[in-house]
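hey can u check if this looks right to u? its 480 residues, i copy pasted from the old doc so theres a chance i mangled smth
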Amino acid sequence: MTNVDRLPADLLKRKAVVYVRQSTQAQVQLNVESQRRQYELVQEAKRRGFRDVEVIDDDLGRSASGTVARPGFDRLVALLCAGDVGAVLCLDASRLARNGRDWHHLLELCGLVEARVIDLDGVYDPCRANDRLLLGMKGSISEFELNVLRTRMLDAKREKAQRGELRISVPVGYVWHRDVGLGFDPDARLQEVIRLIFTRFQQLGSARQVLLSMRAEQVHFPRPSDGRTLTHFDWTPIRYRNVISVLKNPFYAGVYAYGKSGKQMTIVEGRARKSYKHRKPFEAWDVMLREHHDGYIDWAEFERNQEKLAANAYGKAGDVKSGRGGRALLAGLLACARCGRRLSVAYTGRIPQAVYRCNRFDMPPRCMTFGGSRIDAAIGEELLRVVEPLAIEAAQQAEQMHMDTLNEQRRIMELELQQARYEATLAERRYAACDPENRLIAAQLEKNWEVALRRVQASQTTIALSLTNPVWQAAEIHLS
């Protein structure tokens, strides 16, 4: 140790703070050598004469770019303000800060309390002009280095995405194969459920009606049980978010999309904070490659679906509206001639009767209200008169559509039974391979086996009950 590096005795009476930081959780788990070298700075502080050494490692896995809260750095600043710190030790300037604001704020505090900054190159006194200049250059280089690294990585990632080769996360129904690249998930049951959603939406024209019809048939939808890896699923009753996410995702139309969401910057307590996953419109996406992979539907059908979903916004003036169910024949189809909004339906009376009315509250009184029994009867008679010449053909088409629906239900139930049998066989094999002496594991494996067997029995019971239904029996006769 040279005379230049020797520290005053009054500083050695204070504590030395070793600041340990790594930018990401992956670095914490994999770059253990960097972590070990930072912790070895404790011995360096003792070699320089400090007896009280404190290690601050609260920021492991946190970036120093200034957009992430760092409780460890805030704790270091608090200790400096209290005058308890004689020296701050770090591996290099990038460990302390990657932005000029935090770096110069730290140097200012060190200068006020005459604390030293120590790295592997030497000891720096922020009160001296030359040392202050050198530390400022180190901080600027560290900030510039971060920007260069980030720019290079993002540019490379964007170039790879423009070729459609970047392996982004894909929705349920697709997997990245090791050799052939992107393709359908080999699970036939999963494919069948996704195709069923598109088929039902084409028939019914409403995402909510698709949900209600599939719920009535007790259709299940896969939910990932292993986070983002999407290799294991739990089959749960289908929800509206499942239906709408499938219908609105262009990936199912063979489109490779990258940059669908953006980030926003806000100032919170004087610090920049980034928030991600803010959706962007189609035309603002960074990459959009059509016919990139096999799709469950084509692009033309996807565009029709989006137009239909947009038109289904309830009460929106000037758009076509699909039927919303209920006993009223024209529910959701009539518009007010005065304001253009869709008429709502209410059921009143001891024997509920449909009443159409306009509920525009910013224009009292209501534009119109009228009973629906006479108009429904008149429209029904007119419809029957128009379709009467084609009654036989229409009945045959309706019967065929009904049979197709029953066939879809049968395929889904058979796939559920097939998967339940596989899971039961797998649970049996695991139980048989377990050491009987290991009672805790054996008991849990036996319980899993029983749950799988009950699932098989439930699927078999569902199929057996469907076969006793007269509608299913008629379908069997029709198919035979």
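The two ends are 96 Å apart (CA to CA).
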